[in-house]
Design a protein that fits this description.
The complex is a heterodimer of chains A (254) and B (971).
Chain A lengths: L5 H13 L3 E8 L17 E6 L2 E6 L5 E8 L1 E8 L3 E3 L2 E10 L5 E7 L12 E2 L6 E3 L1 E4 L3 E2 L6 H6 L1 H21 L3 H13 L1 H6 L13 H5 L4 H7 L7 H4 L4 H7 L1
Parallel strand pairs in A: 1-10
Antiparallel strand pairs in A: 1-4, 2-3, 2-5, 5-7, 6-11, 7-8, 8-9
Chain B lengths: L3 H10 L7 E2 L8 E3 L5 E9 L9 E6 L3 E5 L6 E6 L10 E4 L5 E6 L2 E6 L5 E6 L3 E8 L8 E8 L2 E7 L6 E8 L3 E7 L3 E9 L4 E9 L5 E7 L11 E4 L7 E5 L5 E6 L6 E4 L4 E7 L9 E8 L2 E10 L4 E12 L3 E7 L2 E7 L3 E6 L5 E6 L9 E11 L5 E10 L4 E5 L2 E6 L6 E8 L4 H12 L2 H15 L3 H17 L19 E7 L3 E6 L5 E7 L13 E4 L6 E4 L5 E4 L6 E5 L9 E7 L2 E7 L8 E2 L8 E4 L4 E10 L2 E11 L4 E8 L10 E3 L5 E3 L6 E8 L4 E8 L5 E8 L8 E5 L2 E11 L7 E13 L32 E9 L4 E5 L10 E6 L4 E6 L15 H6 L7 E2 L16 E8 L6 E7 L2 E6 L14 H31 L4
Parallel strand pairs in B: 58-62
Antiparallel strand pairs in B: 2-65, 3-4, 4-5, 5-6, 7-8, 8-9, 9-10, 11-12, 12-13, 13-14, 15-16, 16-17, 17-18, 19-20, 20-21, 21-22, 23-24, 24-25, 25-26, 27-28, 28-29, 29-30, 31-32, 32-33, 33-34, 35-36, 36-37, 37-38, 39-40, 40-41, 41-42, 43-44, 45-48, 46-47, 47-48, 49-52, 50-51, 52-53, 53-54, 55-56, ...
Helix pairs in contact in B: 2-3
The chains are: A alpha+beta (254), B mainly beta (971).
Membrane topology (chain A): Single-pass membrane protein
Subcellular location (chain A): Membrane
Protein name (chain A): ER membrane protein complex subunit 7 beta-sandwich domain-containing protein
């Protein structure tokens, strides 16, 4: 107990005596950041490195979320924080050889640095305070790729499918609409259809012939002409499936 | 220059082409052994990290320099820290203060204090000399507990007392006497520094007694040893921190044990049993424990123990009791609970708990080691005394076995076992699962008989095979189900069989401790067998110089450096042939060469000297060996009768000041799918594809530079040399070669040659492409000729056909090491560069496409270049997390990565070893030839079923409608 007041002084003395040309650099992770709300959850393997030509130092993450480098000699260092879960911005730290701070240590300056750019292209200066200088979180690291999941909704969201569904709806719903029309209106509408130049291209009328008359369900069910001819069911059959010239003709057959 | 924000955006856009790991593939395609290394006797202990919590953790500093905490109930790693940059070979110290929430460790020059629960650092200090001992001062003048660090600073013994809260130095004791510091020790009132004093022939023990408060010397005692102590290793034990610390040593013949209680001048002698080979002393480390100690003496066949008590008042030592001689080496561990001291004796078939007070056995449990017999080498124990109606004890012991496993035995039953022996791996190779021997035999028989007999034999064999048909048919439904549901098909018979994709291979791993392991790469890296193949003398490492799988027999040959070798079967580990290390021949290196009798591993002595080889071992290639000093030699072998001799064909001497740091050769399996690269304008740049190239990286420490020489191994011709200046030669420089390109990685700090105003600093990777000519559609001086010889330079004014080299350098965000290139069966799949990230503890798989040297610099790529897939050059490559094949796993200490092709072209097997063991498979150009897990078979089958169902339902409806339509009267 008697010794306690002496201790800090003693330690300071030994430090300065043993290492006249060095300093201590403390890096600090912000206690709370939007990208890293709880730095206490960082893995213990997180560490920071100081590197320069023929110099390398590594410091583990401390309980107080700092990295402490002792006995750093003068030079210009690249600082990287290596963490499994988060990425940190690299820093440039200069330990100025000629300038000595009040506590007998060398002066430290820090800037953000940009990899792949000129080393002297310094970014914003990072303030070096009592509690060290702060390292900036850039973001979390995502190691995994999302697997595209099979989902009916995602298929339905596809515009091509949507287009198809709408046109199918019109295609199937039109005959009912036409059936429900007034006879007069229907006649009028059919008249208009005949004069429509599109019809010549489409080659189809309300009842549907040609392409429009193609019976998808029937085809899937296997009721092709050949099939039915073989089974001999009904005369003049298959008109639904194979008729190519329109309703009128099939009516004549009967 | 791009603004920084923009460059980050650009980089984020790059990785879309990277093949990342899917979350559901974790543990399915990859496996990882999170290891610590083999725990050392003095640095392993149970400790309660929280004062008011009963639960304790198991801490160890292993022989590879990893400090870690293990949950004793399930053997899971709580945290671990690699204390040194490189893998160490034993040594180091760990201590924990009683009831403290931190533990301290020392390795090399640093002292660390760690939070015992989280593994976070509390403080760390680097000192000038190597730390020789670390102790905890349990009792100080203040509340906290302090550290004592003893270090040897070039002949000066330095003892520092470090503040346990922040690591600051409280006091320092220096003594420049050229003594060898041994250990620091403390009892309640004093600090002792024990060092060896005198000359190497006859050391005496010097004990300096220091004041705990100031570190001032109070007294100095010299204890004569009568020339029995020759080195620090001869002093067996220096009791630390107990109420009466002791120092003990034996005479040369191990007949007498001499013990001194620290602080006194006298020494006492005790006789050891006859035939004692080694002696260990076990004593409690707590001040409040009874000062009792146990002497464990091993003879050639058995072991016994004697327990001694120290009287703290009179400093006299008396023998309390002895334990009987039992066969086997045996192991003891000490546990102290308050004042009580327990000794746990671990024999091959029993665990016996004893009190230090008397010889009565407190409890004993039969030891059930299961199928694999193993005996404990050393261990630590935790004893729980259950007081109640009848006092009972529970003991859990973590023991290191002679098969390099770390097992926890709870009351005689094995709770868990960790294969810590797989750390310190020095060599590994992939091996095919051997085909059934019977089949091989019958096929051979068929080949050697006349066609009719062979046909009858074959038909008979097939008829015989019919007996397996019902079993096969039986297995179809379950295989179908597992295939649809995506579950693993487990082989019921437990037999190793190859699979259709070639993923099912074995990995043979050799460790420096003389163990060989067989891992099943197709079955989550399961350890199939572990076998101690060579018995090494104490303290030496198995220096494996070569490992080879024999093509036809499937056997694995492992060559050591002292004429030792082992031939094992890869599936069972059964030793076919083995030779112990001998003093005679020294093997420096080995080379795998093609000979008349297939591939052979031939070994070279120092300076690349090779003796005579049998003529059918004559290598067909020129063999490149390291000569004396910094030179390489090309050796050509010529058969002469029954033997063949090598003669030096060329010598490549490095300039003065340069030393070889790395040599890379093309992988033995490096098929070329295309001899040229089709450019955007449909012209072709032809690759320089020389099978005989190596890259030699030579560093010049004084000039801070390295030169990468590309050599032709047939002629020794330097094909290209590129010098990189401003390179830190102290940091690793590595390179890898494949196809027509090579990569080198290094730390560089230099001013740009084309812009002297700019300088760079950081880890970099340089890639060089080799082409036949600078021009497209030009095959260079060789033209289309079918043959060429490196030794007969063609008739051109330029002489030798030199490749056209295109080089580009990229700056990286992290250093790389253990470079390797993926291998696939045909080489059609694009290649990835695999590299271990020593700082991020992962393995990155970097597409060659990113490291393309032809990326346009300073301009956007033209449409033709874009068609080629070239992106604009940006000096920075950020290793994208998605390209890390180890994803979230923390893989430490990888020394080497090996790759192997599979039957399917898309996939390459990867295996990394060093400290941790990691394996996976990578598909650099995506899985284009097999259905991955992402292919949803359930959906496919479901869709087919749904459509079938729909058709079946609709069919009668449609038919009915059609008939109705036909029968309705026309309107």
């Amino acid at each position: 107990m008697r010794l306690n007041p002496l201790l800090p002084l003693l330690s300071l003395l030994t430090l300065t005596a043993a290492s006249p040309q060095t300093t201590t650099i403390t890096l600090r992770i912000a206690p709370s950041h939007a990208l890293l709300p709880n730095p206490n959850a960082l893995a213990p393997a997180t560490h920071a490195t100081l590197s320069s030509l023929h110099k390398a130092k590594s410091a583990p993450l401390t309980v107080a979320n700092t990295f402490v480098f002792g006995n750093v000699s003068a030079g210009s260092y690249l600082v990287d924080v290596h963490c499994a879960t988060h990425a940190f911005a690299p820093l440039r730290i200069d330990v100025v050889p000629s300038e000595i701070e009040a506590d007998g240590r060398l002066r430290v300056q820090a800037w953000e640095t940009y990899r792949g750019n000129d080393w002297d292209n310094k970014g914003e200066a990072v303030p070096v305070g009592e509690a060290g200088l702060e390292v900036r979180v850039v973001g979390g690291k995502g190691y995994f790729m999302e697997r595209s999941k099979f989902s009916v909704l995602s298929i339905l969201k596809n515009p091509m499918i949507l287009l198809g569904l709408v046109s199918m709806g019109i295609f199937l719903g039109m005959p009912y609409l036409v059936d429900n029309m007034d006879p007069e209106m229907k006649a009028e509408w059919e008249e208009r259809q005949k004069t429509n130049p599109m019809n010549s291209i489409m080659g189809a009328t309300t009842g549907g012939s040609g392409v429009g008359n193609f019976d998808v369900a029937g085809f899937l069910a296997g009721s092709s002409k050949k099939d039915e001819a073989g089974s001999g069911s009904g005369s003049g059959s298959g008109s639904g499936a194979v008729a190519s010239s329109g309703k009128g003709e099939s009516r004549k057959k009967r | 220059m791009l603004p920084p924000q923009l460059s980050t955006l650009f980089l984020l856009a790059l990785p879309s082409a990277v093949r990342a790991v899917f979350q559901d593939e974790v543990g399915h395609i990859d496996y990882h052994y999170e290891l610590l290394g083999l725990p050392q006797r003095e640095t392993t202990f149970f400790h309660r990290p929280r004062r008011d919590d009963k639960a304790s953790l198991l801490y160890t500093l292993s022989d590879v320099g990893v400090l870690g905490a293990v949950n004793p109930s399930n053997g899971a790693i709580m945290w671990r820290q690699k204390l040194n940059g490189s893998t160490t070979n034993c040594g180091g110290f760990t201590r924990a203060g009683e009831d403290e929430s931190w533990i301290a460790s020392a390795l090399g020059q640093s002292v660390h204090a760690w939070d015992a629960v989280t593994g976070r650092n509390k403080f760390w200090m680097d000192f000038a000399g190597e730390v020789k001992d670390l102790e905890i001062m349990e009792l100080t003048e203040s509340e906290r507990k302090d550290l004592l660090a003893l270090s040897d600073e070039d002949g000066t013994t330095v003892l520092r007392r470090l503040n346990g809260n922040d690591g600051s130095v409280v006091w320092e004791f220096r003594e420049a006497t050229k003594d060898i510091p041994l250990q620091a020790s403390t009892n309640v009132g004093k600090v002792f520094v024990i060092s060896l004093h005198g000359t190497a022939a006859a050391y005496n023990l010097k004990v300096s007694v220091l004041d705990t408060l100031t570190g001032k010397r109070l007294d100095e005692l010299v204890i004569g040893t009568k020339g029995e102590v020759h080195s620090a290793d001869d002093v067996m034990f220096v009791g630390a921190n107990s109420a009466s610390p002791i120092v003990a040593w034996t005479d040369d013949t191990r007949q007498k044990l001499r013990v001194n209680v620290l602080g006194t001048k006298s020494r006492q002698e005790f006789s050891l049993p006859t035939g004692t080979v080694s002696v260990e002393i076990h004593a409690p480390h707590l001040v409040q424990s009874d000062p009792h100690f146990l002497v464990h003496s091993r003879t050639a066949t058995g072991n016994r123990a004697d327990v001694y008590h120290v009287d703290p008042k009179t400093n006299t030592i008396t023998k309390a009791y002895d334990l009987p001689l039992l066969s086997g080496p045996g192991a003891f561990s000490t546990t102290s609970n308050g004042a009580n001291v327990y000794f746990t004796r671990i024999t091959d078939d029993e665990i016996i708990l004893l009190s230090s007070e008397s010889h009565g056995v407190l409890s004993r449990w039969p030891l059930n080691t299961g199928s694999s017999p193993a005996s404990a080498v050393h261990g630590v124990s935790e004893v729980v005394k259950k007081t109640g109606a009848d006092t009972s004890y529970a003991v859990r012991t973590a023991a290191v076995t002679n098969t390099d496993d770390w097992v926890l035995v709870r009351n005689g039953a094995i709770a868990w076992a960790r294969p810590e022996g797989m750390t310190g791996a020095v060599a590994a190779t992939f091996a095919e699962i051997p085909e059934s021997e019977d089949l091989v035999k019958s096929l051979e028989q068929e080949a050697h008989s006349n066609p009719l007999e062979a046909y009858i034999h074959r038909v008979n064999r097939h008829l015989n095979d019919l007996q397996y048909l019902p079993a096969y048919l039986n297995s179809i439904p379950s295989r179908l189900m597992s295939s649809v549901l995506g579950t693993e098909v487990s082989s019921k018979t437990g037999k190793l069989t190859r699979d259709g994709f070639g993923f099912h291979k074995l990995v043979i791993l050799a460790t420096r401790r003389g163990m060989l392991y067989g891992l099943d790469a197709g079955n989550s890296g399961k350890v199939l067998w572990g076998r101690r193949t060579v018995n090494l003398p104490q303290g030496s490492n198995w220096n494996v110089t070569g490992i080879q799988v024999h093509e036809s027999t499937g056997q694995v040959t492992v060559l050591g450096s002292n004429g030792d070798y082992a031939v094992v079967k890869p599936d069972t580990g059964n030793v076919v042939d083995v030779a112990a290390p001998g003093p005679g021949r020294v093997t420096e290196s080995t080379a795998l060469v093609d000979t008349e009798s297939g591939q052979r591993l031939i070994s070279f002595g120092p300076d690349g000297e090779i003796g005579e080889l049998p003529s059918n071992w004559t290598p067909k290639q020129t063999v490149v060996v390291r000569g004396s000093g910094e030179e390489l030699k090309g050796v050509v072998f010529t058969a002469n009768g029954t033997t063949s001799r090598g003669s030096t064909s060329w010598t490549f001497s490095l300039p003065q000041d340069q030393r070889v740091v790395s040599i890379a050769t093309r992988p033995s399996h490096d098929p070329i799918a295309s001899i040229g690269r089709v450019l955007g304008d449909r012209t072709v740049k032809y690759k320089y594809l020389n099978p005989n190239i190596i890259v030699v990286v030579a560093a010049d420490d004084n000039a801070s530079a390295f030169t990468a020489y590309l050599l032709d191994t047939v002629s020794g011709q330097v094909l290209s040399a590129s010098k990189y200046e401003g390179v830190d030669t102290g940091k690793p420089i590595e390179c890898a070669v494949a196809e027509n390109w090579f990569v080198c990685t290094f730390f560089g700090q230099y001013t740009l040659r084309d812009n002297l105003a700019q300088s760079l600093k950081g880890y970099q990777v340089a890639i060089s492409d080799l082409y036949e000519s600078d021009e497209a559609n030009d095959r260079g001086p060789l033209g289309d000729s079918d043959q060429y010889s490196s030794l007969d330079p063609i008739d051109t004014p330029t002489g030798v056909a030199l490749p056209s080299v295109v080089t580009q350098t990229y700056i990286l965000n992290t250093p790389l090491s253990a470079l390797q290139v993926t291998q696939t069966r045909q080489g059609i799949t694009s290649r990835h560069v695999l590299a271990y990230l020593p700082e991020s503890h992962g393995i990155a798989s970097i597409p060659r496409m990113f490291l393309e040297p032809r990326r346009p610099v300073g301009r956007d790529p033209t449409p033709a270049e874009m068609e080629e897939g070239l992106m604009r050059y940006h000096p920075n490559i950020e290793i994208d997390p998605k390209s890390i094949i180890t994803h979230e796993r923390d893989v430490i200490g990888v020394e080497k990565i090996i790759t192997s092709p599979t039957i399917v072209e898309s996939t390459s097997l990867v295996f990394a070893y060093g400290i941790d063991v990691f394996g996976t498979r990578v598909a650099p150009s995506f899985l284009f030839d097999i259905l991955g897990k992402g292919f949803n078979k359930v959906t496919l089958v479901g869709t087919v079923v749904a459509i079938t169902g729909g058709v079946l339902v609709l069919r009668p409806m449609v038919r009915k409608k059609q008939i109705n339509a036909l029968w309705t009267a026309p309107m």
